[in-house]
Amino acid sequence: MIEAAQNPVTTVMRALADPTRRAVFERVFESKEISVAELTRGSGVTQGAISQHLKSLKQAGLVAERAEGRNVYYRAAPEGLEPLVTWMDHYGVFWRERFQNLRDLLKEIDP
Amino acid sequence: MIEAAQNPVTTVMRALADPTRRAVFERVFESKEISVAELTRGSGVTQGAISQHLKSLKQAGLVAERAEGRNVYYRAAPEGLEPLVTWMDHYGVFWRERFQNLRDLLKEIDP
DNA sequence: TAGATCAATTAGTAAATACTAATGCATTAG
DNA sequence: CTAATGCATTAGTATTTACTAATTGATCTA
User: Fold this and answer.
1) Residue B111: its pLDDT value, please?
2) Residue A75 forms beta bridges with which residues?
3) Domain tally for chain B?
4) Looking at the partner chain, which of B10, B13, B19 has a beta carbon nearest the beta carbon of A3?
5) Which domain holds residue B30?
6) CB atoms within 10 A of CB A4
7) Which strand ranges, in their side-by-side order, compose the sheet holding A34-35?
8) Alpha-carbon Rg of chain A, whole angstroms?
9) Over chain A, what is the mean pLDDT?
10) Mean of pLDDT values over A65-75
11) What is the pLDDT of residues B47-105, one digit of tens each?
């Protein structure tokens, strides 16, 4: 079946469904800012593959970039996860299962 | 890159990344219990396709079934979303960005 | 300047995937 | 019993996708 112009939920899900690409996102997130070359190192795939994954992630709104000299630094854009959160919210998963955490988190933030 | 024995996050993400399959899950969820025939109606795809999607969803732990006579009734298993929740939890998306005022929320839930 | 490094893009390929049509196997109905 | 219905499964197909290798265009460096 075909969707008109691609639902954001679909875009984000598809971006994160691939293990390699998700690993890229995770590394970007942990690194605050990281170049393509460094991402390529230890990724197990070529630089070209990494660039392609970054393109997908960017289109999904999950990462942003900053060019500096011949490097391009990527950083995570967790707001891009919003469509997922909204979608899941609909299923009441958060409250029922994370109830405990809410109280803990609140204490932690503002004791 | 290859993952040993398929990460649950990957399984769930992949299951929900396809719009048709995700629509099936949504309908199952809304219906509390629904037969394959009824799911097929108005789905735009064949009964076989629906059965295949249900198989994926079941393997991902997102639905469960109950056979009765020649019908098989499916119901949602939102616990199957747990891997997603856990994964996303790691990015602090839920509480910090979704609710500006946790205190109000907590009061509202448990005054 | 000439070379080296960084990143994006392209062309090509093997594998995965979403589908259909057809078949088979139960179960129910006439 | 025979016909019909509900569902799963199979084989086959077109499309998508994740990758590599190679190229290009920058920018930095010796």
Assistant:
1) 54
2) A64
3) 1
4) B19
5) 8-109
6) 5
7) A34-35, A71-76, A63-68
8) 17
9) 86
10) 97
11) 999 999 999 999 999 999 999 999 999 999 999 999 998 899 888 755 554 555 555 55
In a domain, B94, yes or no: yes
pLDDT of residue B90: 85
Integer Rg of chain B from CA = 17
Is the C-beta of residue B48 closer than 7 Å to nucleic acid chain D? yes
**CA-CA distance, B17 to B2, in Å (whole number)?**
19
Q: Is residue A44 part of a domain?
A: yes
pLDDT at residue A106 in the model:
53
> A100 pLDDT exceeds 70?
no
Say which of A1, A23, A98 has its CB closest to residue B19.
A1
Q: Considering the domain boundaries, does residue A3 fall inside one?
A: no
Average pLDDT value for residue range B22-33: 96
Where residue A75 sits, what CATH number does that domain have? Answer: 1.10.10.10
pLDDT at B6: 85
What pLDDT does B1 receive? 38
Residue with token string 């996860």: A81
Task: Classify residue B8 as exposed, middle or buried by CB count within 10 Å of its CB (0-12, 13-18, 19+).
Answer: middle
C-alpha distance across the termini of chain A, in Å: 51
Name the residue with tokens 């119901």: B75
Name the token pair of B1.
């890159």
Contact at CB, A110 and B88, closer than 8 angstroms: no
Q: Is residue B74 part of a domain?
A: yes
Report CB contact under 8 Å: B13, A22: yes
Q: Do B65 and B74 touch, CB atoms closer than 8 A?
A: yes
Write the burial class of residue A7 (CB in 10 Å: 0-12 exposed, 13-18 middle, 19+ buried).
middle
